Amino acid sequence: MAYQLWAAVENKRLTEGWTAVRVAEHIGLPRNTISRLKTSSRPPQVGTVHTIADALGINRTEAEEMAGLRPPTSARTGAVSARQAILHDRIYTDQQKKAMLELLDIFDQANGQA
How far is CA 27 from CA 3, 13, 53, 93, 99, in A? Predict the structure, then answer.
C-alpha cells in the first residue's frame, strides 16, 4: 500500500549509507514501522506519514499520495505502472502475479487500452 513511501525511505538510507536502524533513528520511528510500509496491505496512519515526510523533506501531500492515503495529483518521477509493481513485488506468488496480470489485461481491454 505504501510501497512508494517505503522506497523513498530506502533511497534516503542508501544515499546516506545508513543502516535500517540509523534511518529509523533519523525519522524517529521504530524500524518495524518503516519496514511495514513495504508489505502492509493497510495504509499507514497520517501521523506516521507526516513524521516520515518531515524527516525526509518530502511535501506532506506528496507523502500522503506515496502512502496511498490520497489519490495522486501530481506526476512524480520514478513512478511505476501497476504491471511493473506486480512483476517486481516479492510478496506475491507466481500464481497470484499471473492472476493479477490477467485482471489488468481485462481492464485494459475494457478501457480500449490493449
Answer: 17, 11, 9, 32, 37
Selection from 81, 67, 91 nearest residue 3 by Cα: 67
pTM: 0.63
Taking the C-alpha atoms of residue 57 and residue 45, their distance in angstroms, rounded to an integer, is 18
What is the rounded distance in angstroms from the CA atom of residue 87 to the CA atom of residue 79? 14
* Helices within 17-93 (DSSP H only): 20-27, 31-39, 46-56, 60-66, 82-88
Q: Vertex 112, ends 77 and 85: CA angle to 5°?
A: 35
Of 4-8, 79-83, 92-96, minimum mean pLDDT range: 79-83
Closest-CA residue to 6 (of 51, 64, 66): 66
Q: At residue 51, does pLDDT exceed 90?
A: yes
What does the pLDDT read at residue 76? 54
